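Quick log. Single chain, no ligands specified.
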Amino acid sequence: MNKTSVQPNDSSAKSADAEPREPATLGALDHYIGFNLLLAQNASFKAFKRRSGEHALKPGWFGVLSLINDNPGITPMSLSRLSGRDKSTMTPVLRDLRHAGLIARGETVGDKRSYRLTLTPSGVEELKMLAEHARRHDEDLDAVVGDRKEEFLAMLRSVAAYFD
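-> predicted structure:
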């Protein structure tokens, strides 16, 4: 059995009132690509959130805002497909972004069941700020993968394409 220890790397877990954690092992999970992808994604999201200082920031908001910016008038269904998210998880994200005043809904000519998405002026400003944090965060990730970034991205794209 694998003895890989899991220790929290989130500084919030080390607060004075935090319960002490005993070392634990990942066991068989240590060898599962999917589980390690999940750990890497969660760690990356937490680091991005710490960097941006956005306490209300939900994972994936930057990506959704960026996709709407790059595809003005995109429908939620197209956005869901493009982002690789299930529509059921996209709906609450869009609701939250709309309530935060970052996106607006517009009519879709000839289709009353759908609508088109655009960024509001506040959404454009939020995206600019998040894009700068994302750029700096990606530089940190670049330091981890080194000169194998393109190979790493190709592998991630292959995984996504295989299962999509």
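DSSP finds six helices and four strands in the chain.
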